[in-house]
Amino acid sequence: MHRAITRKTLVVTVCILGFIGCAKQFDIAAWELDALAPVVHGRLNLADLINVDEVSAAGDGIMHVHVSDTLLRLGLDSLIGIPDTTLKSEFSVPVGGIQWPPGVPFYRDTIRTRFNLKDVALTYAEVKRSLFTVELKNNLKEPILVRYKILSATSNGDTFELEELVPNKGTFSGEYNLDGYALNLRGPDGTKVNTIYAYVEALIDPSITTNYTFSAGESFKIENTFEEIIPSYAKGFFGQQATSYEDSTSIELFQSVAFKSADIVDFDVTFTIDNGIGADLNLTISELATYNTTSAQSLEHSIINQQQTFGRAIDLFNPLDPVKHVQKKISFTPLNSNLDALVEIRPDGIKYGIDLEVNPLGDVSLGNDFVYFEHDISAFMDLDIPLRLGFEGLQLSDTFDLSLDSAALEEERLQSGILRGYITNGYPFSTAIQLFFLDSNGVLLDSLSETQQLVMPAETDGFGNVSSSTESVVAFPFTNDDFEMLKKTTQCIVKVRMDTYNSGVVNIRDDYYIDFKFVADLSLLAQ
Hints:
Elements: E1 3-4, H1 11-22, E2 31-44, H2 46-49, E3 55-57, E4 63-74, H3 76-80, E5 85-92, E6 99-100, E7 105-114, E8 121-138, E9 144-155, E10 158-166, E11 170-176, E12 182-184, E13 195-204, E14 212-213, E15 219-237, E16 241-250, E17 261-264, E18 268-275, E19 281-291, E20 296-298, E21 308-310, E22 314-315, E23 323-324, E24 326-332, H4 339-344, E25 349-358, E26 369-372, E27 377-386, E28 388-401, E29 414-425, E30 430-438, E31 444-447, E32 453-455, E33 459-460, E34 466-468, E35 470-477, H5 480-487, E36 491-499, E37 506-507, E38 514-526
C-alpha cells in the first residue's frame, strides 16, 4: 500500500510571525494573503485493499475470486468410530486354608472385549493411534506377578504382552498403546467380529520361597479400558448406513469487500464428490444455498435432489499410494445454474444438506469393505470467478495521516478555505469520493461535506480494458465549523464509491488504481 504524507509548514505564516516579532512597536494594518498547503496524498487499489487469499490476479492481469471449500468429509471415525470400552474381571477365594506355591498361576482367564459398532462388522484393523489402561488390584498379603497378553494384537509376529508386580494390598495402574499393531477381530475360532481377546494370569511373587496360604475372601481384580483406537486401515462390512448431514460454513471474503449489488457474467465452478473408501455409496445433495443477515439464495441445478451413485474405491495394496478413488465432477455454468445469484447477495455463509447411503445393496463385498486413514468420503467445491462484472456501490477506503499547521487554522487569522482534490482515476467506472476526519484517538469527527464529489471514469477499449486514465478536480469548501474540526484532526479517511452499471460489464485488473492529492487553498488574515 502506498501511503505518502506531505508535511509542510506554511512558509508565509512563519514570515508573518517573524515580522511581528521584530516590529512590536508598530501598529500593522490587517491584510490578506493566499497560501496552498498539501495535506494528504496517496493511492487506493482494490488488489491491495482486498487483502485475502481468495482474491488474486491471473496471468492476464484480471483479478479472480478463488474459493475452495470442503462441504463434507467422512472418514474412519465417522464410518466405524470405535467407542471407549471397559471390561472388569475378578478372582475371589471362596474358602481359606488353601496353600499355593509361588510362581504357579493361581488365576487364569481369557478376557473378551467386543466393541459396540452397531451394524459395522470389522474383522481386521491396523492401529495408527491408541490408548488403553490396565488397573490391577491385589488384596493378598503378598505381592503377585500379573502377566497380561492381548492375543488379538500382533506386531511382526509378536503378541502384545506386559508383566507387572503388584504389591500386597496394593494397586497398579498403567497406560499403554497398540500403535503399529495389527488386530485380528475374528477371535480364536475365526467366527467373531469387532472382538479383541486377551489372556491374563496371576501368581504369587516367584521370589517368595514358601507356599502362600489363602484366606477366605482374598481377591484379585483386573480392569482394562480401551479409551481410543484409531485405525490406519480397517476391513469388514461397514453396514447399511443412511445418514443426513446439515451444516453451514462462514464466508469471510465479502467482509472485506463492501458493495450494494453485483452482476456476475462469468464463473467456473466444479463440485467434486470423491469416494475413497471400499464401499458403495449413494449421495444426494438436498440443499445448497448462501445467506446473509437479510436474505438467502438457493442453488438451482439438476444436481439438487438427484441421487448420485458411486462404486467402491480400489485397494491398490501400495503403502505409498494405497487407494484409487472414485470421483464424479459436476460443472456449474451460467447456462445450467443460478450460482452467480448465490454470490451476488454478498453472502456471509453457505449452508448445505447431504443425504448419504453406505452399502445401499447390502454386503455385496462379503465382508471386504475397507478404509484407509485420510482416504475419506468427501464433497468439495472449487469456485473461480473472474472479476469481469458490473456492480453498484462498491466501496474502497483507507486511512492516511493528515498534517496541517494548526497555527494557520486559528479562527481570527483564517478568512476562508477550500480543500481541492486532484484525482487520477484508473478504474473504468464512475467514482464518488468523500473525506472523513479523525482525531488523535481515532474518533470520527465529521466530513467536510455530506455530498460525495464525482470523478469521471477511465476510458476503455472494445474489450473492457482501460486504455487511459482520467484527471478530475474536486473541491470541498471550508465552513467555520470545519476550521475548528481541522484543528483536532490527525488522520483522514479517503472513501470512494464505484458504480459500473452505466458502463456495463468491465474487467477489474490488479494494476487499476486511484491516485489522489488534496491541497488546502487558504485565505489568511494577518495582523
